[in-house]
Amino acid sequence: MKIMTLNCGSSSVKYSLWDALPKTKAKLCEGIVERVTTKGGFIRHQLPRARETVQYQECPDHATALRLMIDTITSRDYGVIDDLSEISAVAHRVVHGGERFRTSVRIDDEVLKTIEGYSALAPLHNPPNLLGINTMMRLTPNVPQIAVFDTAFFATMPPSSYIYATPYEWYEKYRVRRYGFHGSSHLYVSRRAASLLRQRPSKVNLITVHIGNGVSITAIKQGKAFDTSLGFTTLPGAVMGTRGGDIDPGIPFYVMEKEGLTVSEMMAILHKKSGLLGITGSYTDRRDILRLVKQGDARAKLALDIECYWLRKYIGAYTAALGTVDAIVFTAGVGENSPVHRARICEGLNNFGISIEPQKNKSAVKSKGETDISTPEAKIKVFVIPTNEELVFVEDTVAILEGKYDEHTNFEYSFESPNFVPS
Q: pLDDT per residue over 326-379, tens digit each?
């Protein structure tokens, strides 16, 4: 059984193809088409134990990008299948599933309509997700399409975590509540952390810290999501690349009145011009910010200070919320690759039983694997675990195709061994 995974963004298409064997899941290839709908399009394609290949082609729309992907995975030189008929299903990342979708589902017209209805809650994500789904349904009309929702993992949160202290009728009428995002990433690393602790998922309390351009922190109690930093939309929580996280809700109204901004103009500022970009004026990539910090740039230093402070504060809050914590897990691009961020975030948490070993922290970047970076005397383990959201997509898809999937499936995942990571 061969499963394709797709993550369609506004200007990119990330993909992978897996061979879902009875007891193991092997990644056959992965890649990304970048600069979709803009000039200078290209595809980066990776086979196991082979050098990455790059091919340049203009992709004015997602259909062209997906056709380029299909041509690549079926090509004589770089392909891993001869024909699309070999694919058993396509698993799509969908960011927002609201309260309607507590699990991954097979896509039909009703599912498509519901996902579209949630686009207002995830305007940067759901529309391109839908573009990918609709395009693949046209290109592969006889292949099952599966939606895997970022929000599904957080369906276990109690009302005290997800209900806001706003008029309750807003929840009743409009389902205004905390939803949470990056669910597949938090699910995967939490199950791997439980395995590293040699415990069943139901026996562990964890704080998982996903730091990429988007950032989210999740408190996991006895294996289930208990609270998370992202909310009704992808705006709140910690500081992100272009989103400011938790701010005084009165600020946007104040500035809108002062500068005569419309709601859509303010939403664009909050989504695309705030966060690290807003503080530095030019940068979202942490590598650029760290380089500027070394050069003495004051605003870059301020951005780093604010980002790490907010993450440290969330860890402290979730430690209190959980009562006991077995491990902190860092994951995603920055969480996996920036020892500076991990060190700064954990700084001063010794009283909580959290301390990291500097050399282990630095070497974790080189190892590219799962690493325990905590000191021997630390009461709470600190892990660096590369995320593998695609494996979650594959597991869900196989379970759906085999009729073995229900609301409790995710909770049973163990992910006993990490899968292929390109060298």
A: 999 999 999 999 999 999 999 999 999 999 999 999 988 766 789 999 999 999
Q: What is the pTM of this model?
A: 0.89
Tell me the β-bridge partners of 89. 3
Q: Cα separation of 32 and 55, whole Å?
A: 11
Give the active site residue among 150, 227, 326, 372: 150
Query: Could you tell me whether strands 224-228 and 215-221 are parallel, antiparallel, or unpaired per DSSP bridges?
Result: antiparallel
- Using CA atoms, how far apart are residues 245 and 236, in angstroms rounded to an integer? 4
- 209 and 98 share one domain: no
Q: Are residues 351 and 401 in the same domain?
A: no
Q: Tell me whether strands 327-331 and 206-211 are parallel, antiparallel or unpaired.
A: parallel
Q: Quickly count: other Cβ atoms within 10 Å of residue 292's Cβ.
A: 19
In the residue annotation, 150 being an active-site residue is answered as yes
Pairing of strands 224-228, 206-211: unpaired
> Residue 377 maps to which CATH number?
3.30.420.40
Residue 6: beta bridge partners?
15, 92
